Amino acid sequence: MSHPPSNPDSLKDKAWYQPKLTSLDPEARRILEDGGIPPPEVLQHVQSVRDRAWLVFPYPCIGMFSFVDMLISKQPAYADILQRLLRKQETLLDLGCGLAQAIRTLVSAGVPSRRLYALDVVDGFIELGFDLFRDREALRTTFVVADLLEAVPAGLQDRINIIFAGSFFHLFDWDDQVVLSKRAVAMLKAEEGSLIFGFQVGRLIPGSAANPHVPKGRMYFHNPESFRRLWEVVGKETGTAWKVDVVAREEMEGLDDLRKDNPDFRFLSFTVERVPQAPNAGFVALEDANPSL
Question: Whole-prediction pTM value?
C-alpha cells in the first residue's frame, strides 16, 4: 500500500471534501448514542475521529464522512443477507473494513459479533473504529490486518459464507482486482450460495486511471459489462461459476459528492453468488477478457 500523501491538507480543496459535519445518518446516530455517546456530543465526536482518520489516509470516504452513512444497509441485497446471518448462523467478512461501520450496522441489527470478520491493510482505521463506536470491550468480531494482495490470511481460507466489499475493489487496477477477487473466492466456502456483495465507484465508459492517492497509484472503474467480464475471468482462473447481478446508478446516498469533480461517475451495487459448475461455466476466452474493450 502507498503511504499517505505528505500533505493531506492539499486534498481539502476537492469538491467532495466536507470540512465540518452538520448532520448525521439517523442509523449511525442511533448506534453511536446506544454506545454511550451523549446526543449533544455525537457530531463533534464523529468530527474528531474523522480528523484523525484523515491523517491515517485521506480517502474520499473519510473526507466526505461517508464512513458514517452505514451504506451496507442501503444495498439492494442487504435484507436477504441479514436474514441469512440471523437465521442460518452464517459468517460474514467486511473486506477493506476501514473503521468497520458495516460490522457495527450488522451487530446493531442483531447479528452476533463473534460470527463477523473484518480485514484491512491499515490497523489505524480499525483502532479508530473502536474509538468511534466505543465498543472495544464488547465487540467479539475477529479483526485481521493483512495485505490481501500478498496472500489469503491464515485462518480465513474456505471459512466465510458472505463477503461485503464496500468502496474496495475500485481502489485497484484491473490486474489487482482479479487477484483480490480470486483471494476473496479462496476465503469463501466452496459451496453454492457463497457470495460477495457491495458497491463501488464506476464510470459510463470503463477504464484505468492514474490516482496517486490510492494504494498502488491506479484505479480501474467498471461499468456493469466490464464488471461481469472481470468475474468471467475470475471464474475461468479459479474453475468456479458465478451469477453476477450489478446495477449502475447516478446517485448513491453518502457518495454523491464524488460526482462534483467527476460527472461521469456512476455507483455500482453488485452481488456475485456462487452457482453450480456447468460445462464452460465461469469461463471466457482470453481475447474476450481484455478490459479495454
Answer: 0.91
The residues, any chain, with a CB within 8 Å of residue 131's CB and separated by 6 or more, are 49, 52
- Secondary structure letter of residue 35 according to DSSP: T
165 and 198 Cβ atoms separated by less than 8 Å: yes
pLDDT at 118: 98
User: What are the start-end ranges of the E strands in the chain?
Assistant: 92-95, 116-120, 142-145, 162-166, 195-203, 207-210, 218-221, 241-249, 265-275
Element of type H or E holding 234: helix 224-238
Cell of 237: 482462473
227 within 8 A of 270, measured Cβ to Cβ:
yes
User: Could you give the C-alpha distances from 43 to 40, 131, 145, in angstroms and in order?
Assistant: 7, 14, 28
Instruction: Indicate the pairing of strand 162-166 with strand 195-203.
Output: parallel
Contact 84, 111 (CB under 8 A): no
Edge to edge, what strands does the sheet with 92-95 contain?
A: 142-145, 116-120, 92-95, 162-166, 195-203, 265-275, 241-249
pLDDT in tens, 123-180: 999 999 999 999 999 999 999 999 999 999 999 999 999 999 999 999 999 999 999 9
